[in-house]
User: Fold this.
Amino acid sequence: EKVYSFIYQEDKMFKSVCNYISNESSGGYSYSETYDFSYNNDDLIVDIFFEDNSGFSNHNTKKYKIDNEGNLKTGYGIDVLYDFHGNISKIIYSGRVIDVFYDTQKGMYSQINSDQAPLYVIHRFGHFFRFNNPITILDSELGEEKISYQYNEFNYPVKIFVLESDFDERIEEVEYLVK
Assistant:
C-alpha cells in the first residue's frame, strides 16, 4: 500500500512523503520517500530522500523549469507539452516520446489549485491526472496502455484499470482524504 502526504505552504507544495508497505506474502518490503521542494523564479529544485527497511538510503537533487502557471516544462532530460485543457499531452525524454489522450471526467488532482509540477515529479510521470483522466498512453518504447475508470458520486476516479501493452492488467484504488 502506498500512502502519499502533501504539505503546502502559501499555495505551493513544499514537502511530500510517500510511505510504501507491501504485504507479508511479498516479503514485507517497505520504504519511505521524502520530497522537499524549493522554488527560485522558474526553477523547481527537488531534494529526494529514500530509505527502505533493509537499511539502504539515498539522496539526490533534481532541477526542473516551470512556467508561470506552475506547470513543468523541462528538466532532468525531459520536455513536456500540454493540451488546451492544461493536461500533459506529450513527454519527450532522450528520444522516447509519450503521447497522452484524455477523457472528459475530473482528474484526481483537478481540485488542487497550486503548482502541478511537484505531483508529476513525485509520481515519476506514472500518473497524468490534472484536469482529466488519461485513457490512452502511447509510449514509443513501451507501447500502448489503455485505461478505464470507476467513478464515485462526485465523478472522481476511485478505481483505475490499466491494460498494458504486454496485456498485463493492474487495478489501482484511490481514496481521498482531506485534512
